[in-house]
Design a protein that fits this description.
The chain is mostly helical and about 280 residues long. Helix content is about 45%, strand content about 0%. The longest helix has 18 residues. About 10% of the residues are buried.
């Protein structure tokens, strides 16, 4: 789907505009035309999940917008000699890093947009330890397997260990100073953030099913049909009657059974009942 990627890499789009664009894409996906609005069998937020978690990997426009803006911040950090990096630094953060930069009400929309994504870079980045001389144990983001990268507990009373360098003995961690409590802290607080998840989590068994589905050597339209079956988004009479609260849910082929996905598959293949579980999301 076409998106204003260049604009989104410079400006933060209003939430209302992102929702409007998402609505247009959702209407197109479900087949709505003009005044003919079709049923949206699944929320847009679910469709934006990655395929391995039951979605279709569509872009969440707000997240995509922030990611593109954060990419600009990262460029200013890693490529300070670019002309645009020099100009932005001279105007907005001449005496500090961009991570410590501030914004004012009168600043340009471009800068306010880029500044809004700095937190995303901070959340996902960690300091490279090296000798640990300049890294504060309790305030800096330096632990890779902790959410946010910071030690969550408060500084112990009368603690004299402030920098990471004080935890290093030679070329390895000092087992006495790091201690079991610090290791336990790291393990206890390790939780996947939104940056790691890439969408809502699913059970491992379901995730494996999605991976196998999209890895099948079949035409995409067949895989998409199976995806609809697993998510129970086919427009059967039962589903339509349930959605609108009225109408006949009986199968038009046999005129006897309630038309469900399982009933349709069973009739068409002649294999027998298909015991599909609930929706895989």
């Amino acid at each position: 789907m076409a998106m204003p990627a260049y604009t989104m890499s410079v400006f933060k789009l209003p939430k209302g505009l992102c929702k409007e664009l998402s609505s247009i894409m959702a209407n197109y996906w479900w087949g709505s035309e003009g005044n003919k609005r079709k049923i949206h069998w699944m929320s847009w937020s679910h469709l934006t999940n990655i395929k391995e978690r039951g979605g279709l990997d569509f872009r969440d426009l707000e997240d995509f917008n922030m990611a593109l803006l954060a990419k600009q911040v990262w460029k200013f950090i890693t490529k300070p000699n670019l002309l645009v990096s020099k100009i932005m630094k001279a105007k907005y953060f001449p005496n500090s890093s961009i991570l410590q930069a501030t914004k004012a009400a009168g600043d340009s929309w471009i800068w306010q947009s880029i500044h809004s994504s700095i937190g995303l870079i901070e959340e996902g980045s960690r300091k490279n330890v090296g000798n640990g001389e300049t890294i504060n144990i309790w305030e800096d983001r330096w632990v890779s397997n902790l959410t946010g990268g910071k030690i969550q507990s408060t500084i112990p009373t009368n603690c004299e260990i402030i920098t990471v360098k004080q935890l290093i003995m030679g070329q390895q961690w000092d087992p006495v100073k790091t201690g079991y409590s610090l290791l336990k802290e790291m393990a206890k607080n390790h939780r996947p953030s939104k940056l790691d998840q890439g969408g809502q989590s699913t059970e491992p068994s379901k995730e494996m099913i999605w991976k196998r589905l999209w890895g099948l050597n079949l035409k995409h339209k067949i895989k998409h049909f199976i995806w609809k079956c697993l998510n129970q988004t086919l427009p059967t009479n039962e589903a339509i009657a349930t959605w609108i609260g009225k109408g006949c849910n009986v199968c038009r082929r046999c005129g006897e059974d309630v038309e469900t996905i399982c009933q349709n598959l069973s009739k068409l293949t002649g294999i027998g009942p298909f015991p599909l579980p609930g929706p895989f999301y």
